[in-house]
Amino acid sequence: MKTPIILASNSPRRKDLLRQIGVDFSIDPADVDERVLPNEVPEGYAVRVALDKARLAAARAVAGIVIAADTIVVVDDEILGKPADASDAERMLKMLSGKVHRVITGLAVMDAVTGKTLTRTSITRVWFRRLAQQEIASYIATGEPLDKAGAYGIQERGALLVDKIDGCYFNVVGLPLSLLGELLRGFGFYM
Among the options 28, 52, 70, 111, which is catalytic? Predict the structure, then answer.
């Protein structure tokens, strides 16, 4: 019998990426406290939140390999999660305009039966071009930025904001596929 794969996320982007690489999986979204702890560094934060998601989904599963991830945007040492509203999205996009930022995904893969866990981070540097106020307002009006870390989605209209990247494109989308494949091989899965 094949070991089931469980995605601890309801992200449409993560679901699409897993389908893209031919993974058969079920979904068990794990909502956890995503507040940043005092003195927490971005990489540690992303892994901690991904681990919390994996533990929650694994505790509810009878068996299976749980995949959990948390993607953040970091600019000027500030962690940008999903914007609270349109005004917050505008603030974030203004911060990113004309700058380089890091997209960090904490990735946790956990065996629900044995508790074996592998974690890693993927970091991609992203260069935004300088954005005009009208561009920011127009982009926010699409609604696209409101459910994405850093208030943009590189795989959609947000691609127009990005000048270049250094690192994994899929990490910026929300699930670093090459790194995920590496972690899954640690559980005997080969794509």
Answer: 70
